[in-house]
Recover the amino acids of this structure.
């Protein structure tokens, strides 16, 4: 078997953009989607890297995402900005509204971005990191598919509901976390199923609500939240704030709408941006210098900050390029030549 | 032993108010503190009920809280409102600024309240619940004392950092959660120490960073966060957003400032208020009716919503009064007659 080849980040981004254009996505949206997918690959975050291309092409082929959607911004000059993705991918909508969100957060101290009606496949860390690079603290959350039971419950109702936070650092990469509020990802249970190994206790319950370590029973039953009732409460908050509050789908409705679980979900998302300089102004302290104190102290204990491995992979990829296997490169060739037709190959 | 006596809620609130006035607290502040303490007792939330009176009197006696502080509001008409508690209790500061926060959130969709330099002893649920009663979704968080190690760390750095959320419901009590981001409360470890029983695994590490079930070793070492690295990330976020971002103490500095652990901490707090009607307006959906769907579905699974037991206790107390033991009543008598002098008795 050949050694993995390395591809420069910008070259890979260009290839992925062409794949989406070939698949009928309008150029601006193709560029946004390619940027975020390659950011995942660059960070060695393989579950959100080029692996996602096929899933995106499948929703395009199924007609469940609008390839021509032009995001529309609604801004009444207040602290809530809305962008309607109009059934398109979430990323072009975020990029379209980002500058307005940043400007407003700096003006008023805190601003919210509502993303409506988007096909959501990407990790949230990209959005909060982008805002942190503009000097803002940011929170982001969204529903997903109803695969998770609430604490004390027996049936799927909540999504794996990711929760992300970003904080600007004085030097180098921001403090960023982004995690599912389920104890594990659904894909991890699937991997155990294929390997014929039991899943750890505490990951899931069967269809009758009993604890199970059998991956088949877990997939028929429900996953559990991290942190028992506390994680369940946070996951419920995410359904309320980024589903009900926006008048967008919660995880159960997202699943009902798509009617199948093998396509990426369509729903909304909520992003909050806070300007530390506004919040700290009256204190006379520098909020970012203050933040460094605790972040440095965490590192001094030998503890790892979230996203640290991702940033290390990124720094390496920016210099050396991204290592891809022959089979990954062959798939890119096929997608680039055939677009959606490659799915039938 | 005599049966517990029941005291009407308003009668108890009046007694507690008099205790704080007798102890030198200005009348408006005494009323605010009494209201929140009796709300805890009413909800059978004993750890934040009249048990707290003695702790509050001790910080007054130690001169570590300003009894005469008049909260000052700074409002520039933007989305961040500040109230300086001026070293007084947090509750009068929150009550002083609450109406401005509510008004601003309704006007702009989202608003933040910064509470500066307050003595903080109360649960956060009271604040988010109050805002939910005005139709707002609300988040609240604050640091505390550095008793908790970050995930992968060995030394205390984070506080038990509570995180609270409120969501208005169409009928009846709001959806409210409020929990420490440590896996257990420090008081629970103390109870094990007194009883001579081991603490559960996963609660704490000893001073060398090794897991321990010995309560003495745990109290000398560090507590752990709920939900492993995810809970640790959330606790760090709370340090950044409600400490560093406000230019107020983080948990380590709060502990250094007070110089001892038996007094309640002084720091800031952050409250976010979001108006669901503003966020949902363009969707044509009723956000509160949407929220009912998931909250009802959780209940239909037989799962308990957070705060449910508290609301049941409240409903009962509002009709029957609050049951207090002879020794609790005797302590109230003593505090009421002697104020701070009762501490020397």
């Amino acid at each position: 078997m050949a050694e993995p080849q390395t591809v420069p980040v910008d070259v890979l981004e260009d290839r992925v953009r062409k794949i989406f254009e070939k698949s009928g996505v309008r150029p601006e949206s193709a560029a946004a989607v390619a940027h975020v997918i390659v950011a995942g690959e660059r960070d060695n975050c393989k579950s959100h890297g080029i692996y996602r291309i096929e899933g995106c092409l499948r929703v395009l082929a199924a007609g469940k995402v609008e390839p021509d959607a032009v995001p529309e911004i609604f801004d009444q000059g207040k602290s809530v900005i809305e962008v309607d993705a109009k059934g398109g991918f979430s990323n072009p909508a975020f990029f379209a509204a980002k500058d307005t969100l940043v400007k407003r957060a700096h003006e008023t101290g805190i601003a919210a971005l509502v993303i409506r009606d988007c096909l959501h496949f990407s990790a949230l860390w990209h959005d909060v990191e982008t805002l942190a690079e503009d000097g803002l603290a940011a929170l982001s959350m969204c529903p997903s598919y109803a695969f998770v039971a609430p604490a004390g419950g027996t049936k799927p109702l909540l999504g794996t509901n990711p929760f992300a936070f970003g904080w600007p650092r004085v030097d180098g990469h921001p403090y960023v976390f982004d995690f599912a509020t389920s104890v594990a990802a659904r894909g991890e249970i699937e991997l155990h199923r294929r390997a014929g190994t039991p899943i750890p206790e505490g990951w899931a319950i069967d269809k009758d609500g009993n604890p199970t370590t059998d991956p088949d029973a877990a997939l028929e039953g429900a996953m559990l939240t991290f942190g028992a009732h506390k994680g369940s409460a946070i996951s419920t908050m995410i359904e309320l704030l980024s589903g009900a509050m926006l008048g967008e789908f919660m995880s159960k409705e997202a699943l009902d709408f798509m009617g199948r679980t093998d396509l990426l979900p369509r729903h909304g998302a909520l992003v909050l941006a806070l300007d530390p300089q506004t919040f700290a102004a009256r204190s006379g302290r520098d909020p970012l210098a203050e933040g460094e104190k605790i972040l440095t102290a965490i590192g001094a204990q030998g503890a790892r900050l979230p996203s640290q491995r991702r940033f290390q992979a990124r720094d390496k990829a920016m210099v050396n390029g991204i290592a891809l296997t022959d089979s990954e490169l062959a798939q890119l060739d096929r997608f680039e030549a055939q677009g959606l037709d490659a799915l039938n190959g």
Residues 64-183+224-306 of chain B form a domain with the Ribosomal Protein S8; Chain: A, domain 1 fold (CATH 3.30.1370.60).
